[in-house]
């Protein structure tokens, strides 16, 4: 195989070197297009609506009764932690965000260690924030290039406390499962490899070679490689992600589910057939240049706080913002930029002022009503076009770059205003107000997240978003395009690296040429299919590279039963979570480094890389000395497992890749288009852009055009007393990691087991504020019930309710998924709510007896 130029593998003088770009003026500024290469970016999101699924019916688990049946709790404990209600806040960030950032960082990591981590997070010579994938500025970066939630994530990763073998010898799995998720996370960093053997109720220490031998024995003893599931968290950097998929495919399976199956799979499934690329088309500078921004199904103030800075810049440049969300969120109202406190001229005004107004038109849509809302806006736009021919629809763009316009147009015009208003919950007049902001503009960006993708019609709604942008010619030019805002730090990069159960043939052919083996052709399982197969007893080994699928996935008790049916579960992680406690017959808990940790190997201080939401690949180089212990890097763990499992069957030099990650990147450079000369490009400050066809109006669809879609608007009638539930995060959590029991923007303090309800819905059910309630979900005649939640009156559309995940995840049926993407519908769960029933003393006694035994 040819050597790659500029690789430190070939030229030791390059090791650790960072190339200087010269003046900051060389970085692309607002309105300019970045240098992104000529090759089209690989498409890793092609969806086949006729794909094979696991069709066997899995009955609903006894969600409420599970706590009496299993000593290890899969759900967070029901004990309430003390709810205190305050008024919902109307301004996000500000001085409170600064204080909270410092508090978390110094309390968990210590003053010196915590400050060191914060000052290097998201810097060009530092490490990538392990929380969200919001991009960093191309040009100047602030000394404090992080948000409150990034600071919490960094503090958690930098924790100086240790959860070592002594901790696990003291606490059984059953005892640990009765701790809250916050307290499990706060137990400290995992320090040594641990094993739970058959019949044990404790994890105990094990040597790394013995752990690898257990994995190899179980994997090699299976009837088929497809009896193993290899799950990936979006936190995993590119290099270990590439190795993980390589190992799975050399072993013989495409069972590579990952967290994107549960989040933006619907985005990829909708964007690929319409634009040719399952990723967004905009850059951070485009956000600054936009004339209109539409933010749908997203809460940036909590989930992507640094996005608020970009929105603030856009507002100062004259942009109008339309927010679409069932909940009124502080971050979509006003924003006080914490960075302004470092400017003496702005600090006092920021402290005392009302901040920047973010939203111009707020559309408080009903859950799952976004497609109808979009149709209403476009129906108004077509009416405006009739009155002002050629001034609303970009006819030139439509004729040159698209297909399917007339069929799409008739589909919109044939939709009745009655259906639009009923399904969306938004009046025709309100939709006209939004349409008027859009009508004369062409620099339009639509941003969306889980509030769109986790609907039943998630894929169709993404296609409707594309329809709006295409009719306006708002794609492929500065200030315009698609912006799916991704969650975890490298969830987009993991897909690029091959973490997908259905990678295209050209990728598999490149793997075969590079590594000398024949990859399996049979499609693997995604998350939902994997869980069904595990529950049905079709698999024997579950390997999790990071993450917490038990808490992140739907139907929690079904997942728990699926885990218990495995011969071996393997969890790689930095800190303890509930998913590590519900195990197979044998279980391994393997400690690894966080993004902030120095990774020293034979070739020296190693770096990895991540791809952000806008297709920029940049370096991740830890700065902290790891907590004392026996951790291995993710790369070393994967390579150790591969060597033990594959033995003489592999031609791959796993040892070389462990010793020097440049070797991995040289392989990636030869396998994945657009990564040529990877080691050289990665060492440029700020990294490099991947090619993006739609960004340049190069639509790599089957017909070479951007395609309008004729979507189907469906009504879903409810039974009397039924409501629609969506799950959300609190402000003091990131994904399934819980930092505290508070959600200050929504006025919640000291409690997570809450249900946000419209006051009229509460009154109709005889429920008062802070009453205890039980929630039951209904799906195809089956029920799932959670108990002892607290009712909270809130500004949410009538007929809609909301609760935090993972607490509400047991209500999400495994069979309820978005069409095409197979994404669980956590944003559409049909429920009923009643006051909590009296405790059953007999069952409590039975549970206590079980615990004693």
UniProtKB/TrEMBL annotation:
Domain named Molybdopterin dinucleotide-binding: residues:
723-828
- The segment annotated Disordered runs over 1-55
**Which keywords label this protein?**
4Fe-4S, Iron, Iron-sulfur, Metal-binding, Molybdenum, Oxidoreductase
What this protein needs as a cofactor is: Mo-bis(molybdopterin guanine dinucleotide); [4Fe-4S] cluster
- Entry annotated with the keyword Iron-sulfur: yes
Report the InterPro entries cross-referenced here. Asp_de-COase-like_dom_sf (IPR009010), MopB_CT_YdeP (IPR037951), MoPterin_dinucl-bd_dom (IPR006657), Mopterin_OxRdtase (IPR006656), Mopterin_OxRdtse_a_bac (IPR010046), Prok_molybdopt-oxidoreductase (IPR050123), YdeP_MopB (IPR041953)
**Positions of the Molybdopterin oxidoreductase domain:** 189-570
Q: Where is the composition biased (Polar residues)?
A: 1-23
Q: Name one Pfam family in it.
A: Molydop_binding
Q: What is the superkingdom listed in this entry's lineage?
A: Bacteria
Query: Hey, which family's this protein in?
Result: Belongs to the prokaryotic molybdopterin-containing oxidoreductase family.
**Name of the protein in question:** FdhF/YdeP family oxidoreductase
Q: What organism does this protein naturally occur in?
A: Hymenobacter ruricola
Organism taxonomic ancestry: Bacteria, Pseudomonadati, Bacteroidota, Cytophagia, Cytophagales
